[in-house]
Amino acid sequence: MINPTTKANLAAHGHDHRLDFARGIANWFIFLDHIPDNVVNLLTLRNFGFSGAAELFVFTTGYAAAVVYGRMTLERGFLVTATRIIKRVWQLYAAYVVLFVVYISTVGNMAAQYAIADLIDEYNIAGIVDQPDRILMHGLTLQSQLPHLDALQLFIALMAFFPLALASLLRWPNLTLIGSFALYLAARTFDWSVSSFPDGRWYFNPFCWQLMFVLGAWFALGGAKSTRSIQHWPMLRIAALAFLLFAMLVTVAGQVPWLGKLVPDFLLFPFTPNDRENLAPYRVVHFLLLAFLFARLVPPDWPGFHWKLLQPIVKCGEETLAAFCAGVFLSFFGHFVLITGPNSLAMQVLVSTAGIAMMTAVAYYVSWSKRQDHKSALGAHA
Length: 382
Hints:
Blueprint (H helix, E strand, L loop, with lengths): L3 H8 L5 H17 L19 H24 L1 H36 L4 H5 L9 H9 L9 H11 L1 H10 L1 H18 L15 H21 L7 H22 L1 H4 L4 H4 L12 H17 L13 H8 L1 H21 L4 H37 L1
């Protein structure tokens, strides 16, 4: 039995261009953040506050999943919806397997061909020459934490448990959110995590990051409507802006030595280092306040989303999986170009721009291909 309020919210839910725009921004920023020693990634979210593109990606993914599969539950029933979610998990896993195999093969070959032994350690594939079977086995079971693939591994884990979360959210949305928050607190208190190979733990602790995913789903299923009244509180907007400015000051001070000396240690200490693995509470607060102000300032039907200048971002949000996978692979090649060639400012800008352009081209191609399949299906049906 679906909660009547949740059912009404789903039925009235229209297309929100803000979601596609936010997911496109997340994909672009994740690509840039994955290229180290790149001046362009100084423009991404993580450099201006406690949260970053990862929170944006997970939150918007949870939001989109709740809308798509919540509506499917209304139209076709929960059993069909659960099978479609499982199918999506297999698609994500297949994408991960392809990326993993191509990744370790490419990194290994380039490290050997160009005599860059540090690449093996940097990309966490030590032992690929001596124990390829073991590396492959742990990779296929999501135990190997390769840089750049960790977000996709987290996405797979969250979607695998989403049928249970969705069933609970559709019936008891507030109680489910409380349970998610309780799991988050327990994981942080008792240090629950998932181990990785050869040692260490998942870079994104799924027991903690599930909170961001469930928050996105909760807002999609009615949380945004139930909190709409507080958007008109002037004091809340002032407090949100003050916290975001404080977060920017602390973050920049931690990156700029001379500025860090001007900020008292008691202000820097609680936020240094920024706990990303276990999703520190101040990261959650920072992201929610950022989302609150964005939702307040930008309406769902803002005409700017149709501007040609913003269409590439929106398209990368609409085809988020294709854009993400392309970005993962392109980020390695971008890093490789910079460490084997002239790592100049112009080259960093060129690599970043070219990578984003190719990501966008992939998104546009996938979108075009889907339309052709749809036309063929309509033609065959006729």
